[in-house]
Amino acid sequence: MRMVFRWFGEGNDFIPLEHIKQVPGVEGLVWALHDIPAGEAWPLERIKEVKRQANQYGFHIDVVESVNIHEDIKLGLPSRDRYIENYIQTIERLAEVGVKVICYNFMPVFDWTRTDLFKEMSDGSTALFFENAKISNTDPMELVKEIAENSHLTMPGWEPERLKHLTNLFRQYEGVTEEDLWNHLQYFLEKIIPVARKHDIKMAIHPDDPPFSVFGLPRIMTSKKNIERFLKLVDDRYNGLTLCSGSLGANLENNVADMVRSFSDRIHFAHIRNVKTFENGDFIETSHRSEDGTVHILDIMKAYHDVDFTGYARPDHGRHIWDEKCRPGYGLYDRALGIMYLWGIWDALNKEKEA
Ligand code: CS2
Ligand code: MN
């Protein structure tokens, strides 16, 4: 397991690289050029700049999260070919600096969706919260406004420029079914995966978060059955997964440890975090510890250990603790605690294996 840490870039993250450096066992940064709109090729100079910054602290930049996919590709519009060309150019440029894994997602319109970014917990910490009833009763436009006002910094997937066109986007998705989405994903993969293979970059799709339809939009990366189908769309190791335990764990029927065992050779990037999911479909992002949520982190780590996982891993979202001012879900403190929990389990399992 190779531990990496998500950093949103100079001026776009409150956490200095000096501080990430002090978290034990972190070898690289998970990064992206967040200001480049989906669909545009990333400029090589900008990519090299991130590499220079990271290298100053001895970090690698092997893992990119995310190179986002233009909506026209998800919608299967004729203009998609132009955006796929740009995507290919980005892959080629990332290959020039030695990137190994590209994480992306195929969720229409919204990336991760929550109803409250700072929900107070009983111990005084706050965390990302999803309230099922609120989603059903809220106009997406209202939610977008609320999220934009409360997030301190722009969140990936919730960029104001993009969301200005929200009504239009929703109109474009009218009548687009899950089957259509599968077809559009396949079309994209058939063009991209040979390029990724050529440059030895693993493509790693992130599951939908939450793993069910929101606001009536189709979502397909949601369950074991659907992940199996995804892997067969292009049956190639370079067509792989970012297995996010927290995203998938928001559906109590998903057994993430079992997925780790079943898909081990296709998992290139592990997101490991806990959530507490309630019977009514609400969920809150808890600490990483197994007993604090409904995702069995200990079992998941055991599964990764049993399959000799050598890919990249990161703690995923954390709570906001100790009065830290941070991006929602991406503070330093709780993610650092998460890392130490994951290492604790991992080291113990290593020891047990040696004995
Ligand atoms: C989120 C997403 O759960 C997560 O990791 O932070 O924003 C994630 O980065 C994207 O969906 C991946 O494309
Ligand atoms: Mn994730």
From TrEMBL:
Pathway annotation from the record: Carbohydrate metabolism; pentose and glucuronate interconversion
Keyword annotations: Iron, Lyase, Manganese
Recorded catalytic activity of this chain's protein: D-mannonate = 2-dehydro-3-deoxy-D-gluconate + H2O
Pfam families: UxuA
Molecular function in Gene Ontology: ferrous iron binding; manganese ion binding; mannonate dehydratase activity
Keyword Oxidoreductase: no
Annotated InterPro entries: Man_deHydtase (IPR004628), Xyl_isomerase-like_sf (IPR036237)
Enzyme Commission numbers on file: 4.2.1.8
Names of required cofactors: Fe(2+); Mn(2+)
Biological processes annotated in GO: D-glucuronate catabolic process
Residues annotated as transmembrane: none
Keyword Cell membrane in record: no
Family named by the database record: Belongs to the mannonate dehydratase family.
Free-text function comment from the UniProt entry: Catalyzes the dehydration of D-mannonate.
HAMAP family referenced in this protein's UniProt entry, alphabetically: UxuA (MF_00106)
Protein name: Mannonate dehydratase
Recorded name of the encoding gene: uxuA
